[in-house]
């Protein structure tokens, strides 16, 4: 992806098929996904909603890592959740449209806030590149936000770990959620992929890496 300032920005998406269910069924197999997760870009995009479910609002402060975190959040993170990421990350950037977000009450040198009247992922990426030197970012969030990135044509690569589990259910989250395409005029919003690598992992897991070509 080329930003308006002419800079190149590589945006990757790392996902797995419903890891929350896999944890309940085959917890010993998930280490492969988390090992891949630890080897991605040094900038990681997450959502406050997912991280709150992971318990960051209640967790003790962790040790510092070299990874910088970008958090899209309006009301799921508490002050402790924000401090958790400040302690963990090299840089923490909160993207929000909530002027009363708890992040504004946290005073840390590595905390930065992008306040937008209306959330624009493209504009946020431009700010991350221009102000914080972020030129590679891995998205590790839920299907709804992944859908927003897809519709704005912001993904460059897609990295998927497929777990050998069938779940089903019309209300089950998918890798790409959000508003459905309803007409032929919207076909340009499809994400067209080119397979660049297929790796068989342990216990029938598969890693698929794609380049987004359209």
Low-confidence stretches: 2-9, 16-26
Ends: how far apart? 12 Å
Estimated radius of gyration: 17 Å
| DSSP helical segment count | 6
* pLDDT averaged over residues: 84
Structural class: alpha/beta
Instruction: Give the SSE order as H and E letters.
Output: EHHEHEHEEHEHEEE
Main sheet summary: 9 strands, mixed
Helix content: 10-25%
Spatial order of the strands forming the largest sheet: 5-4-3-2-6-1-7-9-8
Beta content = 15-25%
- The overall strand count is 9
Overall 3D geometry?
A: globular
Protein described:
With 214 residues, the chain is an alpha/beta fold. It is built from six helices and nine strands, in the order βααβαβαββαβαβββ. Strands 5-4-3-2-6-1-7-9-8 form a nine-stranded mixed β-sheet, sandwiched between helices. Strand 2, helix 3 and strand 3 form a beta-alpha-beta unit.
Helix and strand arrangement:
Blueprint: E1 10-16, H1 19-25, H2 31-37, E2 43-47, H3 48-53, E3 68-72, H4 79-88, E4 92-96, E5 111-115, H5 121-132, E6 136-139, H6 143-151, E7 157-162, E8 193-200, E9 206-212
Parallel strand pairs: 1-6, 1-7, 2-3, 2-6, 3-4, 4-5
Antiparallel strand pairs: 7-9, 8-9
Tags for this model:
214 residues, 9 strands, 24% helix, 6 helices, globular, alpha/beta, disordered N terminus
Short characterization:
By secondary structure, the chain is α/β, with parallel strands linked by helices. 24% of the residues lie in helices and 24% in strands. Helix 4 links the parallel strand 3 and strand 4.
